[in-house]
């Protein structure tokens, strides 16, 4: 009964607890305990005070403890990754070739289509560069004059060849006559030599007979005179032979000189014809010019159609070089362009997380790559590839705050882990020229290390 009364007093107000019944107080006062004990019993005559603890308080405390442990575990085991966000696009690993117009004009013919494989030297486009004057199309008039010049040179060539042929024929005839005269003269000389020998023998006989007294001195002298006449005749014939030999040498030299003169004339005519042919080719190029494929590959993009006007150095198409006979196109790589303030911790071998703009990463996920090359110097906007400069700069301005259109950008080459992307369960090859955003993973640390980094840095100073 006393316990029930004490519990009732515990839940009562303080005024009720202080006011104890007089009977109880008198009973306490009559005991043999000290006054302090009696006073304490008089203050707690209805029991001790106990605070109520509902079950909800315990549940909340338990949840708070679990959350605190989770936060501590996250701080201790969780990591913080430092990333650099840049933009870029997919391009062939071997690069791409820009097919440009050499002269301004009108694109008259296109011999290829997008996706077509071509070989080196194959015609791709034909550009007309005709100019009109008061008398008609200028290049046509120039072509007519150049044709007349070429015909004149050809006629002169034929004339000079005919002249040389006639002259050589005349020289050959004179050489034949000289050879015949030389042969006859040799015969006369042989006869004269025989007569001279006979005259010498006869003179010897006459001298012998004169010594014997059979002939007179006058007869012997006559024989001597005959011998002298024959010697003079022999000298005349010998001199004539020498003259014929000199004539023969002169004719041979004249023939050789004629051949040299013809060769010189032909060389001059060939140079003149070459100049005219060059002028004809240049004039033809002013009318139409063929643009050929510099090497084998696949035509990826054609930017102009037949009938459109093109400027000098204007890009007409993009050619992706052929990698091998078993592979139509080069494997793709990603080229990222970043300003200098993002290049402090970028290095080869770092992982790159790629988000293709054509495939939202929320649905198709992130794609991995690895940095394989970093340019040693930045590219000015004018140094960027002409057919990619506008795309690169616009993506950089949109995705990287603070970048201006005149800022130089470093090129980062990334090797892709896959050349395709899974689209609804189907592996679809990545096309060249796809724009993308990428995060370069530069550093990974524990959260507690990141929180304590300022303190650790301060202690190391």
Automatic annotation (TrEMBL):
InterPro entries, sorted: MFP (IPR050739)
Which keywords does this Swiss-Prot/TrEMBL entry list?
A: Membrane, Transmembrane, Transmembrane helix
Question: Which residue spans adopt a coiled-coil conformation according to this UniProt entry?
Answer: none
Does the record carry Membrane as a key word? yes
Q: Which domain of life is it from?
A: Bacteria
- Residues that span the membrane, as ranges: 59-77
Q: What is this protein called?
A: HlyD family efflux transporter periplasmic adaptor subunit
Annotated organism of origin: Massilia rubra
Which lineage do the record's taxonomy fields give for this organism?
Bacteria, Pseudomonadati, Pseudomonadota, Betaproteobacteria, Burkholderiales
């Amino acid at each position: 009964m006393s316990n029930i009364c004490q519990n009732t007093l515990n839940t009562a107000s303080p005024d009720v607890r202080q006011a104890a019944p007089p009977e109880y107080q008198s009973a306490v006062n009559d005991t043999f305990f000290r006054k302090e004990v009696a006073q304490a019993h008089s203050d707690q005559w209805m029991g001790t005070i106990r605070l109520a603890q509902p079950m909800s308080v315990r549940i909340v405390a338990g949840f708070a403890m679990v959350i605190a442990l989770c936060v501590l575990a996250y701080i201790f085991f969780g990591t913080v990754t430092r990333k650099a966000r840049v933009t870029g696009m997919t391009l062939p690993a071997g690069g791409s070739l820009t097919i440009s117009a050499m002269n301004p004009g009108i694109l008259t013919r296109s011999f290829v289509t997008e996706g077509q494989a071509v070989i080196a030297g194959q015609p791709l486009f034909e550009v007309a560069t005709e100019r009109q004057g008061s008398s008609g199309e200028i290049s046509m008039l120039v072509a007519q004059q150049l044709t007349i010049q070429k015909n004149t040179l050809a006629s002169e060539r034929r004339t000079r060849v005919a002249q040389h042929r006639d002259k050589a024929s005349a020289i050959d005839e004179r050489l034949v006559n000289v050879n015949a005269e030389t042969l006859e003269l040799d015969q006369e000389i042989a006869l004269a030599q025989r007569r001279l020998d006979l005259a010498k023998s006869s003179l010897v006989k006459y001298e012998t007979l004169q010594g014997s007294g059979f002939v007179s001195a006058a007869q012997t002298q006559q024989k001597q005179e005959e011998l002298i006449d024959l010697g003079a005749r022999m000298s005349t014939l010998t001199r004539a032979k020498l003259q014929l030999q000199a004539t023969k040498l002169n004719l041979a030299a004249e023939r050789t000189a004629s051949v040299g003169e013809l060769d010189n004339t032909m060389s001059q005519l060939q140079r003149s014809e070459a100049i005219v042919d060059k002028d004809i080719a240049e004039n033809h190029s002013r009318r139409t010019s063929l643009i050929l494929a510099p090497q084998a590959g696949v035509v990826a993009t054609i930017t102009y159609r037949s009938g459109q006007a093109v400027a000098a150095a204007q890009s007409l198409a993009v050619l992706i070089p052929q990698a091998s006979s078993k592979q139509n196109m080069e494997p793709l790589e990603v080229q990222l362009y970043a300003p200098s303030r993002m290049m402090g911790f970028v290095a080869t071998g770092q992982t790159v997380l790629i988000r293709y703009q054509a495939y939202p990463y929320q649905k198709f996920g992130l794609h991995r790559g690895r940095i394989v090359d970093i340019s040693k110097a930045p590219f000015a906007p004018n140094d960027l590839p002409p057919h990619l400069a506008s795309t690169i700069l616009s993506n950089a301005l949109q995705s990287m705050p603070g970048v201006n259109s005149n800022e130089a950008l470093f090129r980062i080459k990334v090797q892709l882990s896959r050349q395709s992307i899974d689209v609804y369960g189907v592996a679809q090859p990545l096309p060249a020229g796809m724009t993308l955003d990428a995060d370069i993973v530069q550093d990974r640390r524990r959260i507690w290390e990141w929180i304590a980094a300022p303190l650790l840095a301060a202690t190391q100073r």
